[in-house]
Design brief:
By secondary structure, the chain is of the alpha/beta class. The chain contains 10 helices and 11 strands. It has helices spanning about 5-25, 45-60, 75-85, 105-110, 125-130, 140-150, 170-180, 195-200, 245, 260-280, and strands at about 5, 35-40, 60-70, 90-95, 160-165, 185, 205, 225, 230, 240, 255. The strands form 3 sheets. Strands 1-11-8-7-5-6 form a 6-stranded parallel beta sheet. The chain has a 3-stranded parallel beta sheet with strand order 3-2-4, sandwiched between helices. The longest helix has 21 residues, at about 5-25. The termini are far apart. The model has no long low-confidence stretch (mean pLDDT about 95).
Length: about 280
């Protein structure tokens, strides 16, 4: 049976460390403030925003919530982002995705100041990561690196395979694993003989968005499996991209869904908020 990587416990450990840092910064006269903007009433987004507010409250970060109606224009949203860029009290700006169809997500992301881009989505943040410079890192991949390190899993010199090449997970994940001296391969919908590639992996990161797609035939004995998926199975139950029951006896370590990668994403957002003032 694989070791279960407990994302909840590791996320709590990091949040407690951040809480101490924030208390110390406050004692030195530095407050931290995160502005969260949500446009419309997407139910999943509402849950995420609520969780972000709770995490801020726990750690001691002030959160400003802007809950805008669905019909908010692109120009109105960009004006709000620019005002928050100019507001010295605000250290981080987060625009909850997805946005309504009439708003250009890329334009909004580019408008956020790279100094306040705690989601790590701005082209400048992505560029800094790709050439090994300091900057904000996309929260889910950063959380996965923490899960591996705090679980005592070595990355250096190991074969790392990622299924999925999204801008939010797959691509930054590849860069972060390279930064840790992993040998990295990225698979996607055009990869031929995908199982032949994934069966080489010492560490397999799955971020494809297909419920239980990866079973034991995709992995080699003793691999570490990181499941980024958040899907529903045929019974409507929350599951990942990995068939947990099929894989758990073949892997050496695995993240469950829920309770694996998910809790780390918001925790690393909090980490980025603290980092936004520490570097000053």
């Amino acid at each position: 049976m694989a070791k279960i990587i407990d994302g909840k416990a590791i996320a709590q450990e990091i949040k407690d460390e951040l809480k101490e840092k924030v208390a110390k910064l406050r004692a030195e006269g530095t407050e931290i403030c995160l502005a969260v903007i949500q446009v419309g009433k997407d139910p999943a987004s509402t849950v995420y925003v609520g969780n972000k507010k709770k995490a801020c409250a726990y750690i001691g970060i002030e959160s400003l919530a802007y809950e805008l109606p669905e019909e908010t224009t692109e120009a109105e949203l960009l004006k709000l982002v620019e005002d928050l860029n100019a507001n010295e009290k605000v250290n981080g700006i987060l625009v909850q995705l997805p946005l309504p169809e009439h708003i250009d997500e890329n334009k909004v992301i580019k408008t956020i100041s790279p100094k306040k881009d705690v989601d790590g989505f701005h082209p400048e943040s992505v560029g800094a990561l790709s050439i090994g410079q300091q900057g904000f890192v996309s929260c889910t991949p950063a959380g996965i690196i923490e899960l591996l390190k705090r679980s005592g899993i070595k990355i250096d010199g190991r074969e790392c395979v990622i299924i999925g090449r999204s801008n939010i997970v797959g691509k930054p994940m590849a860069l972060l694993l390279l930064r840790e001296n992993g040998t990295v391969t990225v698979c996607h919908s055009h990869t031929k003989d995908i199982k032949e590639v994934t069966k080489r992996a010492d560490i397999l990161v799955v971020a494809i968005g297909k419920a239980k797609m990866v079973d034991e035939s995709y992995i080699k004995e003793g691999a570490v499996i990181i499941d980024v998926g958040m899907d529903r199975d045929e019974n409507g139950k929350l599951c990942g991209d990995v068939d947990f029951e099929a894989v758990k006896d073949k892997a050496s370590a695995i993240t469950p869904v829920p309770g694996g990668v998910g809790p780390m994403t918001i925790t690393m957002l909090m980490h980025n908020c603290v980092k936004s003032v520490e570097g000053r």
